[in-house]
Amino acid sequence: MQPHECISHTSKWVVDVIMKYNICPFARREVERASIRYVAIEHTKVKAVLNALLAECQYLDEHPETETTLFILPRGFEGFYAYLDLVDDANNLLVDHDYEGEYQLATFHPDYCFDGESQDSAANFTNRAPYPTLHIIREASMEVALANYSDPESIPERNIAFAQRKGCEFFIKLLQHCTKS
User: CA 3, 168, 115, 139: dihedral to nearest 10 degrees?
Assistant: First the structure.
């Protein structure tokens, strides 16, 4: 899989799943503004991935017109538990480099499974993506968006209810459609 293909698939997922079904009510604005950066990381070693993540935070520091980055990991983190270990390391990296409060990470994975949910629960599809992905979010922007959204606490529950209504097969087909070139 070439990096440009992973980026294309992920971009299609953002538009055809996240935006279309309002999984993230803030995505449409950024898609329309073309302020989402997509980066496919070819590294498979944790240290190299973390260095690339740090470089991406520095990129965002220098490019305020870029609202957010989807940091795509097409290889090396296919296993969900290895991915979760990377997420822990990535969050620690943000703290260690004084990015806590500046950026936060949202996490997506093809095999995402919420703690306490069965692997085959439709609820997991709210965080399933074509590839393991770290979504780097500007905290200040998120605070503004949440302040202007009525009842932001209801977003996860609304998404889970939607996913359960639609069922796993619906989301499996959506994800398959996103990865067709």
Answer: 50
Buried b (16+ CB within 10 A) or exposed e, 118-142: eeeebbbbbbbbbbbbbbbbbeeeb
Residue located via tokens 């609202």? 67
Tens digit of each residue's pLDDT (9 = 90 or more) over 138-147: 999 999 888 8
- pLDDT single digits (tens) 34-50: 999 999 999 999 999 99
